[in-house]
Write a structure and sequence with these properties.
Strand content: 15-25%
Largest sheet: 6 strands, mixed
Strand order of the largest sheet: 6-7-8-3-9-10
Distance between the termini: 37 Å
CATH architecture of the largest domain: 3-Layer(aba) Sandwich
Bound molecules: adenosine-5'-diphosphate, magnesium ion
CATH class of the largest domain: Alpha Beta
Oligomer: single chain
Helix content: 25-40%
Radius of gyration: 21 Å
Shape: globular
Length: 289
């Protein structure tokens, strides 16, 4: 079956005008495709080009060379920009910067209003979006009094109310406490697994990235790895060189496997991603299934 590509970059490079350094490109010769329904995590140290890539994918930025196609439309064509941005919404890091109104439901209605959708239809779009993020009972609240995680869920509802096919999250959990982070990850997983939404998740949290179908690693504007979480997290030395960690439990097993005496006695599996896999491995050392 032919997979359904919705976002594609062909040999894409981008340089900010304000960047004085001649040779410095934020994104260099990136080629990739993202298929409908996929959950893709993007990793890389600060300044590696993740945000720039995300903005190229939904037409906020347009490449100086190469081509970005979203839903079959070239982002370089001015008339494609609004439909592309509606179909590929973006959630940013700071929830406060994304709130525009004093009432949750007005905030969520802002996007569809700007699209000129009739008001009776907006009502149902807003209700549905708030329902999806589990914030329906807060419709009449002031967003400013909510927790970080709740605010971020309102920001997600604002995007959902425009009925996008894809959502790009640019470090959307970075400013949240553990509870808020959990709320957003649960929302993202539900959107992907239940609503079949395509998700691109830029994150510094490896426990979030392991939940994706696919992990892309960027360094100096280039995509340097692209694989399943297991493939990516199997190579701990590579991750460290790219300025990243593996999940804690992966790091632990890797550390043990570096000990020559232990490594000779036990065959340490590579790319253990979670506590359950690690526990199963340890049980197996004791001859337990
Ligand atoms: P990341 O999201 O991985 O931290 P960015 O895409 O934000 O990386 O940045 C990539 C490169 O582009 C960095 O060198 C950064 O300094 C530069 N850059 C990002 N935004 C701007 C901007 N608005 N103007 C000039 N340079 C920028
Ligand atoms: Mg960034």
């Amino acid at each position: 079956m032919k997979s359904d590509v919705i976002l594609s970059c062909e040999n894409v490079s981008f340089q900010y005008e304000t960047d004085k350094e001649e040779m410095k490109k934020a994104v260099r010769e990136v080629s990739l495709t993202i298929e409908k329904g996929n959950f893709v995590a993007v990793l890389g140290r600060n300044g590696s080009g993740k945000s720039t890539l995300a903005k190229l994918l939904n037409g906020i930025l347009v490449p100086q060379s190469g081509r970005v196609t979203a839903f079959g439309m070239d982002t370089a064509e001015e008339e494609n920009l609004l439909p592309i941005r509606r179909r590929a919404g973006m959630v940013f890091q700071n929830p406060d910067n994304q709130l525009v109104s004093n009432l949750v439901e007005e905030d969520v209605a802002f996007g569809p209003e700007n699209l000129g959708i009739p008001s009776d239809r907006i009502r149902s779009l807003v209700d549905e979006a708030l329902e999806t993020v589990g914030m329906k009972e807060f419709a009449k609240h002031s967003p400013h009094k909510l927790s970080g995680g709740q605010k971020q869920r309102i920001a997600i509802a604002g995007i959902l109310a425009m009925k996008p096919e894809c959502i790009l999250f640019d470090e959307s959990t970075a400013m949240l406490d553990p509870q808020g982070r959990r709320e957003i990850m649960e929302t993202i997983l539900r959107l992907n697994r239940v609503e079949k939404m395509t998700v691109v998740l830029i994150t510094h949290h490896m426990d979030e990235a392991v939940q994706a179908d696919r992990v892309i690693v960027m360094e100096e504007g280039r995509v340097v790895r692209d694989g399943t979480p297991k493939e990516i997290f199997s190579d701990v030395p590579f991750l460290h060189a790219a300025g990243l960690d593996a999940p804690q439990v992966t790091e632990l097993v890797h550390l043990l496997s570096e000990d020559p005496v232990l490594a000779e006695r036990f065959r340490f599996p590579k790319g253990i991603l979670d506590e359950k896999e690690a526990a199963d491995f340890i049980f197996s050392l004791f001859g337990k299934e």
